[in-house]
Design brief:
This protein is an alpha/beta fold and 105 residues long. The chain is built from 4 helices and 5 strands; from the N terminus they run E-H-E-H-E-H-E-E-H.
Length: 105
């Protein structure tokens, strides 16, 4: 299950995490963000090797600016506290899963 993170919890929830974390940068008003939300929920339930979290860019402006998020949805995969892969824009579930599996190695 995906869970929300905030600017205040970002370091603990993402940077210090013991397993890879996929961060979904999103906003309530973003149609494509709402479109991939259920897909990310499904992937979160299917993939044990990664945690999927969401950060609302309107409520939490620090993390998106730190990682140069210019468009949403943007998904950044963090491994060992560092960003290792980025995907911008909505995509079908199969494509997102393939991208994520490839990025996880």
């Amino acid at each position: 299950m995906t869970r929300p993170v905030t600017d205040a919890s970002f370091h603990t929830d993402v940077i210090s995490a013991t397993k890879p974390v996929l961060v979904d940068f999103w906003a309530e008003w973003c149609g494509p963000c709402r479109q991939i939300g259920p897909i990310l929920e499904e992937l979160s339930n299917e993939m044990d090797g990664v945690e999927i979290v969401k950060i609302n860019i309107d409520d939490n402006p620090d993390a998106p600016s730190r990682y140069n998020v210019r468009g949403i949805p943007t998904m950044i995969l963090f491994k060992d506290g560092a960003p290792v892969a980025t995907k911008v824009g909505a995509a079908p579930k199969g494509q997102l899963k393939s991208w994520l599996e490839g990025a996880l190695g």
